[in-house]
Amino acid sequence: MGRREVKSLEIDDPVEFVREQLNFEPDEQQERVLRARGKRGILNCTRQWGKSTIAAAKAVHRAHTHPDSLVLVASPGERQSAEFLRKASGMVKKLGIKPRGDGDNSISLLFPNGSRIVGLPGTEGTVRGFSAVSLLLIDEASRVADTMYKALRPMLAIGNGDLWLMSTPYGKRGFFYESWEHGGDLWQRVSVEAASCPRMDPEFLEEERAQLGALWFRQEYCCEFVDNGASVFGRDLVEGAMDDDLEQLHL
Questions:
Q1: For the structural domain made of 3-193, what CATH number should be given?
Q2: For tag attachment on the chain, is the N or C end more exposed, with fewer CB atoms within 10 Å?
Q3: Share of residues in the chain with pLDDT > 90 (%)
Q4: SS3 per residue for the chain
Q5: Mean pLDDT score, 27-48
Q6: Domain boundary assignment for the chain
């Protein structure tokens, strides 16, 4: 295999791309996320797993290998989007590309091939106006408002773009929970608990379990959607009481 063919293989395979071009060695679950080919994906993962790093790698790979593509990154707030773009900028430097903005958006990266990565602020009223999106990444999706999510989805229509939701759970509410639990076969799901992460120290996790309490630990490190205790009836009890087969009672 010639040098040109090896280069092409590295670019086409996202895992080889991050290994050879970005000098990053992904673990088994990170490889699974990078190689996912479905149009809709959900990553439900423990804190400190490297979610934003893998999301940034997906964004850079898409922008670098698909000329004139638009990658949008939405987060709960502008600070998170800026941090995401900072990670992506570091990866772009490893490609030998000098990071620069697109001239229109304050949180953005413009590639020599015309592709862009744009970080969005966290409010629904300021994200409209984009179209033909190739890849939409929603980071910390459990903390993003439903109104924001509904404003973003139509941006995928023209380009038939891909959508990935990435987050640690935050209660049994919102589009992240609904998509994970009730979204059906449309979504490719990846779950990564702290116990299966090779970079997590078991002694640290036991300390966290003792300090945070069972419910919070299950949410932050075990990928569980737990009730926050604010409701009179838990979400599981309400859903269990609903039966689509029952006839409606007419008074």
A1: 3.40.50.300
A2: C
A3: 70
A4: CCHHHHHHHHHHCHHHHHHHCCCCCCCHHHHHHHHCCCCEEEEEECCCCCHHHHHHHHHHHHHHHCCCCEEEEECCCHHHHHHHHHHHHHHHHHCCCCCCCCCCCCCEEECCCCCEEEEECCCHHHCCCCCCCCEEEEECHHHCCHHHHHHHHHHHCCCCCEEEEEECCCCCCHHHHHHHHHCHHHCEEEEECHHHCCCCCHHHHHHHHHHHCHHHHHHHHHCCCCCCCCCCCCHHHHHHHCCCCCCCCCC
A5: 92
A6: 3-193
